[in-house]
Specification:
The chain is of the alpha/beta class. The chain folds into two domains: 172 residues, Rossmann fold; 101 residues, Orthogonal Bundle (Helicase, Ruva Protein, domain 3). It has a five-stranded parallel beta sheet with strand order 2-5-8-1-9.
C-alpha cells in the first residue's frame, strides 16, 4: 500500500514539475511545422542527458529545431559544419601563443555551448568525430595541460544526410553507440507543406522567447530519475535487448542469420532512461509498456548490426526491432 501512495505523490510532483514541457512544446510548435517526433526526441535527449543522431534529407528543419530549443531554454547554441578539412582543434579549441606575455593561452572551441549542432557529422574524418564523441561521453575537454568541464546541460544533435555517400566518413559502430537516440525524419505531409510555404512567402516566421532556464532543466533531470520503473518493465526492457542478441531464445530463429551483433548494455540503460523521460513528458510518474514501445525504435535502430544476408534480403534494423517488439511478451 505504501508503494501506491508513493506513486500517487510522485505523480502529483511530476505534474507540477513537468509544466514547463507544455510551454516548450508550444514554443517549438510555433516555429516548427509538423515534425512532432523530432520535437519529442529532442526533449527526451535533453531530459535524459543523452545525445541524438538525426538522419534526414536536407531542408527538414533540423537546424531550426535545435536553434529554437536553445532560444526557448535561454541557453548557448553552437553550430559546427563538419567538412573533410576540419581539425579537432576547430571543434574543441586550441592553445595560442601570445608574444606579448610569452605564454600560451587557451582558445575554447565551439563545443563550449549548451546545444551543439554537428551538421553532417559524417563529412569529417574519424579524428574529428572522435574529438566530439569524447566530449559527449566525458562532458569535458582537454586542451594542452588543462581540462575544462563543458556547460550543463550539454546536448549534441548530430545530423547525417542519407542520400550522399561521396566524400563521407561513416561513423564507426562503436561510436554510433554513444548516441542515445538515432531518429530518422521524413518529409512533412502536404497540409504541413502548404503551411510552410504560406509562412515563408508571407515572411511571418514566428520568434520565440525563453520559457525556462538551464537550471530548471537540470532540476527536471533529477525528477526524471525518480520516475518509477517496475520490475516487470525492467524485465521487458531486458527481454527486448536480449532478443536482439539471441533471437532464437525468443522464438525468432529466422532473425539469427540477419544479426551480427545486438544491443549493448548501453542499449538497456538508454531504453530505460528514454522511457522515463517519455513518461515525464506525458506528465506521468511511472513507466508503462507503451512508453518503452514509443522510444524503442530510436534507441535500438543504430545498435543492431546487419549481416550480408539481411542486406541482401533488404531487411532493415527497423524491421528487426519491429519483429522483436511484436514477439516479446508485454507485461
Amino acid at each position: 500500500m505504501a508503494e501506491t501512495i508513493d506513486i500517487r505523490e510522485l505523480n502529483i510532483m511530476i505534474e507540477q514539475q513537468s509544466g514547463f514541457i507544455t510551454n516548450l512544446v508550444a514554443g517549438m510548435d510555433k516555429v516548427i511545422v509538423g515534425q512532432k517526433h523530432l520535437v519529442d526526441s529532442l526533449l527526451i535527449s535533453l531530459l535524459s542527458d543523452g545525445h541524438i543522431l538525426l538522419e534526414g534529407v536536407p531542408g527538414l528543419a533540423k537546424t531550426l529545431a535545435i536553434k529554437t530549443l536553445a532560444q526557448l531554454i535561454d541557453a548557448d547554441f553552437s553550430r559546427i559544419q563538419f567538412t573533410p578539412d576540419l581539425l579537432p582543434a576547430d571543434v574543441i579549441g586550441t592553445q595560442i601563443y601570445s608574444q606579448k606575455d610569452e605564454t600560451f593561452h587557451v582558445k575554447k572551441g565551439p563545443v563550449f555551448a549548451n546545444f551543439i549542432l554537428a551538421d553532417e557529422i559524417n563529412r569529417a574524418p574519424a579524428k574529428v568525430q572522435s574529438a566530439l564523441l569524447e566530449a559527449m561521453q566525458e562532458h569535458q575537454v582537454t586542451i594542452g595541460d588543462h581540462t575544462f568541464a563543458l556547460p550543463k546541460p550539454f546536448l549534441v544533435m548530430a545530423t547525417q544526410n542519407p542520400i550522399e555517400q561521396e566524400g563521407t566518413y561513416q561513423l564507426p559502430e562503436a561510436q554510433i553507440d554513444r548516441f542515445m537516440l538515432k531518429v530518422v525524419i521524413d518529409y512533412p505531409t502536404i497540409e504541413e507543406e502548404k503551411l510552410i510555404i504560406r509562412e515563408n512567402i508571407n515572411g511571418s516566421l514566428p520568434t520565440v522567447t525563453a520559457v525556462t532556464s538551464a537550471k530548471e532543466i537540470m532540476a527536471a533531470r533529477d525528477v526524471v530519475n525518480k520516475v518509477y520503473i517496475d520490475d516487470k518493465i525492467a524485465q521487458y526492457i531486458a527481454d527486448i535487448v536480449f532478443a536482439s542478441r539471441y533471437p532464437e531464445r525468443y522464438g525468432l530463429s529466422e532473425l539469427k542469420g540477419m544479426i551480427t551483433y545486438g544491443g549493448s548494455p548501453r542499449a538497456s540503460i538508454n531504453l530505460a532512461k528514454a522511457s522515463r523521460a517519455y513518461a515525464f513528458i506525458k506528465h506521468r510518474g511511472y513507466v508503462v509498456p507503451e512508453d518503452v514501445r514509443a522510444v524503442v525504435h530510436d534507441v535500438m535502430r543504430h545498435r543492431i548490426g546487419l549481416s550480408y544476408e539481411a542486406e541482401a534480403s533488404n531487411v532493415s534494423s527497423e524491421e528487426i526491432v519491429s519483429k522483436i517488439v511484436n514477439k516479446v511478451e508485454v507485461p
